[in-house]
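Good morning N.,

You mentioned wanting to compare the apo and holo forms, so I went ahead and generated the holo version with adenosine-5'-diphosphate. This is what I fed in:
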Amino acid sequence: MAEIRRLSAHTINRIAAGEVIERPAAAAKELVENALDAGARRIEVILAGGGIERIEVIDDGGGIAPGQLALALERHATSKLNDETLVRIESLGFRGEALPSIGAAARLTLISRQQGQDSAYKITVAGGVLGEVMPAAGPLGTRAIVEDLFYATPARRKFLRTPRAEAEAAERAVWRLALAAPAVAFRLVSEERVMFDVPVQDEVGRVAALFGRETASALIPLDAERDGVRLSGLAGPASLSRATMALQSFVVNGRPVLDPLLRMALRLAYRDVIPAGRHAVAALRLEVPAEALDVNVHPAKTELRFADANGVRSLVMGAIGRVLERPVVTGAAAPGLNLRPPPSYAPPSHASLFSPPSQAKRGFAEAELVLLTPPAARQISVPEPEPSYPLGAPVAQILDTYILAVAEDGALVIIDQHAAHERLTEERLRGEFEAGRVASQPLLLPVVVDFAPSDALRLVEQAASLAKLGLVIEAFGPGAVLVRAVPAALKDIDAAALLRDLAEEFLEDEAPVALEARLDAALARLACHRSIRAGRRLNEAEMGALMREMEVTPRAATCSHGRPTFLKLSRAELEKLFGRRG
Ligand code: ADP
Ligand code: MG
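and this is what came out, ligand included:
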C-alpha cells in the first residue's frame, strides 16, 4: 500500500481550479466580482479567443497594496471574510480561491495601484509558479490579465467547447453582473467588438440597455415584500415570451444567480399564460436578510439556499400573478377582431401581437377556435348528434406542404401539415407524459451515438429523467451513449438524430435549469421529430385523418412554436381579398 501524503499546494490549486474555474466564463465572472468587491465605479472586460486566449478585466477600485499582491494569489487568502461563521456574507467573493485557481491553470498578471502610490505594481503567476512583484505603469485600480487559460491543466482544456460558445458564455456572465450592478459603468469587448458600453444607471435604465429598449418597454414594474424578504424588478406581460431563458435575470443580495428555485417559481407563475416551450422575460431582484440565506452552497456561488424556500417561492409567484392580472393593452385592434387570445394561445412574441399582418393571420386561426371545441360540447341537447367535422373535407394537397379543404360552413381552409401534425404529436406525448406512462419501444439494434466525453457523461446522468420520456440510454465507453429504447410514438425515427437534438436541451449552458422545464422542451422536440415533414405527399385518407384528429385535439390551432396550424378564409374575407368589399 502506498503511504498517505499531503498534496502539494500546487496540486491542491489545480484541483480547485477544476471546480472554481470550469471555463473562461467562470474566470471572467470571478474577476469582475473582485472588481465590484473593490468598489469599482467603472469596469471594462476584454475577451479574445473565447476568453481562452485572453481575458482582461480593468477596474478603478481600491487596488491591492504591493506587499499583498503575492498573498492575493495564495489559496484561502481573502480580505473579505470578517465574520468567519459564514453567516453574514456581504461581498461577492469570500472563499479566497479564484485568483490562485486561475493562476494554477493559466498565466495571470495583476497590475494594481492604490491611492497615494507613485506607481502601480505587478505580479505574474503561471501554472501556479509565482513571479516577483515589480513596479509597473498603470492607473489607480486593478488590471487582471489571464492568458492561455488551461494551458497548465490540459485535461480541462479538452472539455472546452468552440471559442464562439465559450465567448458567448463569458459574455453572458459579464452581462449578468452588469445587470446586477447598475450603479457601476460597464464596457464589454469580445473579439474586438463592443458588446455593450453602459454608464452608471438606475435599475430600469440598465435593464433597458441590456434587454433591449423595445423588450424592456413592455415590462411591468413590481415590488413586494414578505417576512422581511423584498422582491423588486420588472416582469413581462403574458404576451411577451422568448425561445430561451436568456432574458431572465435573478439578483439576490446583489449577486446574479441561476437558482433553480427562482427559475421554477417564475416558470410556474407564467405556466398558464405562455405557450409550452417558451419562456418569460423578467429582471428580478431579491433582498434577503443575510441570516436567511446561504450562498456557500457551490464553489461558483451561483446557487443559494433560502431558509424559507416556500416563502420565497410564494413571494415570486404572488408578485408575478399580480403583474399578469393587469389588463393587457391590445393596441389598435380592428373592430370585431379579438386580439386577446385565450391564455394557452398566447402569441410567441410581443412584436407579432402588434404587427398588422400577423394580426390578420391570427384573426383567422382564432376566429375558428370555437369550431374546434369537441362537437359533443355544443350539441348537448341533441339526443343523437350527427358527427360534426368543422374542418370539412380535404380537396387537394398543394406544394406537398399544405392541405386545402372546404370547411363545414363552406369557408376555405388551408392547413400547414407539418405544423398541425407536430401539434398533435406533442399533445399526445404530453398526455402520456402527464399520465406517467410514455410507452417505450426497445430498438432491435441499439444505436451508439458519439459525444464529447463530458457531454456523454452529463447525458447519462440524466438517464432517469430521459426514461420518463420513453428514451432509454446508457453509457457506452467514455465518449458514447447507447440508445436502447425510444418513445413508442416515435418508433421509426432516427434515434441518433433524436438523441443529439435532445442533448441540446439537456446540455444547455445554463446549468441548473429545472428538470421539468427541460422535459417540457424535450417533449416539443420529440414531437418535431415524429411529425410529417413539409414536402411529403399525402393521400386523401391521410389528409382526412389528420383533420379529424385536429378537430378533437385541444390547442390544435397553433403549433408548438406558436404559429397557426391552419388558416380559414370565409366568404367575407375572400371578398375582401378580391376587392369586392371595402
Ligand atoms: P476572494 O474574492 O474570495 O477574496 P480572490 O482569490 O478572488 O478571493 O481574491 C483574493 C483577494 O485579492 C481578495 O480578497 C482581494 O483582497 C484581492 N483582490 C482581488 N482582485 C482585486 C481587485 N480587482 N481589486 C482589489 N483587490 C482585489
Ligand atoms: Mg474573488
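DSSP finds 20 helices and 23 strands in the chain.

Happy to go through it together on a call whenever suits you.

Best,
F.
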